[in-house]
Each structure stands twice: as structure tokens, then as C-alpha cells.
Amino acid sequence: MKKIFITALIGILSLSVSNAQTSNEKLKIFNGKVITPYSIIDNACVLVENGKIIDVRAGNVDFSGAKEIDAKGKYISPGFIDTHCHGGGGHDFMDGTPQAMIKAAELHAKHGTTLIYPTSASCSDKTLFEMFDNYRKADKMNTTGAAFGGIHIEGGYLNKKMSGGQDPRYVIDPQPEHYNKILEKGGDIIARWSMAPELPGALDLARELRKRNIQTSMAHTAALYDEAVDAFDAGFSSITHFYSLTSTVTRKDALRYAGVIEAGYNLDNLYVEAIADGVHLPSPLLKLIYKVKGADRVVLVTDAMRGAGMPDGKSILGSLEDGVPVIIEDGVAKLPDRSSFAGSVATTDRLVRTYMTKGGANLLDAVQMLTLSPAKLMKIDDAKGSIAKGKDADIIIFDENINVQATIVGGRIIYEAR
User: Fold this and answer.
1) Residues 35/367, Cβ–Cβ less than 8 Å
2) What is the mean pLDDT of residues 314-337?
């Protein structure tokens, strides 16, 4: 028990935001509409010191020695948290350099992301371990992009029939001798792991990850309903890109069998990811997810690859050396034969905008699905996910159309629109 506690504590400490992202400056953001989990406070201000929010109140109060930001009547919101992102701005988190990681984080910061979980794809152990090394370097260097929350492993332990845009060469079943090696190399920085729960050994791995405070998610799965329930009991806390490569009702002879989609709706405490780019999920499905699960159990994710923020054309999902060729068109990334999506090119501001226009969500709920809900999923809501006294000063300012005007991480201004 003592060993498990120490391991979990090390993981928690290791996944805290780098001090490089925290400012010692005093900051006052005023003349804005502050979005809280419960209401919008008009003509309010937020006071920040040493990277923390020290007060939120209506009106404009004196704060001696503080740098002032006039929100000019726009919204002051918690920063967006993206728990599933592969890259952006022409860079992938698996490109093999810390600079590529930082550049991708910079692109997403411009669109309101203040905390990002660099996500892998199915790859060789060599490529994955290089990602671990580069993450550690980038985390220390990064003062200009969204902060890093830890690595999200998506890949390897997937159902081969549901691999989609993942490289089938590296799709395998989980074996202790393999995943223990991964945990040895990256256990201090792995925050989340997506896998198919029906694979032999997947539940044993989920139980081990739960001991280490690593969140586990059902992904690229053909599991039946009962298998999904067993997975939830073993520690799976979410479903990765709900509806995308996720099993639903199947029929064998005269009988019908429910799948992971139905488990997602029936298990109240199970979170579901939604790629709300307006392409992966049409309006009726966005509305259904929101109606059944509610904002507190929906986590919006970009699932963005390097094509986010880039023009249409050929691109690569995964590392430049060993990734999967894709094509960007119609606001999404696809395999060249158009047989499957291969990640999105969305940014977090687009997700909020889309859920309001196509998913029926109001502003408070749309913002919650990218702030407090992912913070709760990742068990960091004591420090992030809302604008409240004592929490980290991860704050954005945006207008009525969710166009981001400023991004602040740990009290540091890292982006201002010109």
C-alpha cells in the first residue's frame, strides 16, 4: 500500500504544470463578463498574483502595481483544456523535437487552449520513448504555448477491426512485459491511456493504471455492452471520440447486443469525448449526447493533428518519419482513400462555437465541456477548470463569436490578438 501511495504521489507531482508557465506578476483583468460554472458576472474583474486567482468580483477594484487588461466588455473565461490533441500548426507531438511540441502548443494557445495533453498514435516503442524524452524537454522550455498536462497514449492496444487512421503495423494486444516497459519509461508523465477494453489483458492494465492515477479511456473498440461495464468497473473513466470507431448495437441471429455507445449513455458517471468540429458528429448526435449526458459528463476534444491551422492538402498523421499519409479537406483530415477520418483540424474555439450553433448548448454549458468537465475527468479541478479564488490563473478573453482576444497561462500573457 505504501508503495502504491508513493507511486501515485510521484505521478501527481510530475504532472503539475511547469513553473516556466507561472508568472510572479500581478494582473488585473477588468471590464468583462466573467464566466463562472453557474452564471455570468457582468462588468466584473479578476485579480491575479503569483499565477493564482486571488479575487473575482463585480466592478473595477484598485489593485496597486498590477498590469491591467481591459476586456472591453468581452467574455473572461477559464482557459480551455484539450485532453486529446496530436498536434497543430504543421507540427505533431511525435515529430521528434521539443520545438515541434512547443510550436503545436503555441498554435492551440492562440485559439484559447491553456492546458493540452499531447497525444500519441500507434507507433514503435522507439518513437514513443522519443516522445517521452522530448515532452520532458519541451515542458521545461515551454513559456509561449498552452501548458502541458501530461501525455495521452492513444494507440497500440486497439481492436484491429476498429483501427481507423491508426497504423495497423503497431496495433497489438496489451502484455505486461510490454506495458510495464512503457510505464517504466514514462510513468511519471503519462496522464491518460486510450485502449480497447475487450482485448486480453486490457482490464489488468486498467487496474494498474488506476493505482497510478492514470485515466483510462475506451477507444477504437468493438466491445459489447457487458464488456464496457466490466471496463468501467476496472477503472475506465471515459470513452474516446464517442461514436468514432466505437461499437453500438449489433445483431447475431435473432438477438441484438448493445455496445459501448449504449454503455456511454447508461453509465451516468462515464465521461464521453466529443469531437465537436461539425464534421465528425452531425447536429442530431451532438444534441443527443448533450441531452442525455449533460455538460458535466461531456468532454470536448479537438483530436487535432498537424493540419490544425494549416491549409487544405496532403499531410501526415503521426511522426514525420513514420506517420500515416492523410489529406485535409472539408474541414477534417481523412485517409487518402476517404474511407475514414484521420483526426481533426479543429481548435478549441471552434468546438465551443459548433456546440452552440449545432449542438443546442448555451454558452455556459459549451464552455464547461472544455473547462470544468475535462478538469474533473483528469482530477485537477481543485486547481483548474473554473475562475475562482485560489485556482490557477489560466484565463482567456473572447468575443460573442468565440474569437479569442487573449490567452493567459499561470498569470502569464502568452497571446494577444492584434
Assistant:
1) yes
2) 89
**384 with 375: CB under 8 angstroms?**
yes
Residue 171: phi, psi to the nearest 5?
-90, 115
Cell 461539425 sits at which residue? 278
Specify the pTM.
Answer: 0.94
Instruction: Indicate the angle between helix axes 176-186 and 125-141, nearest 10 degrees.
Output: 20
Give backbone dihedrals phi and psi of 155, rounded to 5 degrees, phi first. Answer: 140, 165
What contacts 227, CB < 8 A, 6 or more positions away?
Answer: 197, 198
Amino acid type, 172:
I
Q: How many angstroms separate the CA atoms of 19 and 40, rounded? A: 30
How many Cβ atoms sit within 10 Å of the Cβ of residue 361? 23
Cell numbers given for 410: 499561470
Query: What's the whole-number mean pLDDT along residues 192-218?
Result: 98
Assigned C-alpha cell, 401: 463569436
Domain 79-383 adopts which CATH fold?
TIM Barrel (3.20.20)
* Residue 226: its H or E element: helix 225-234
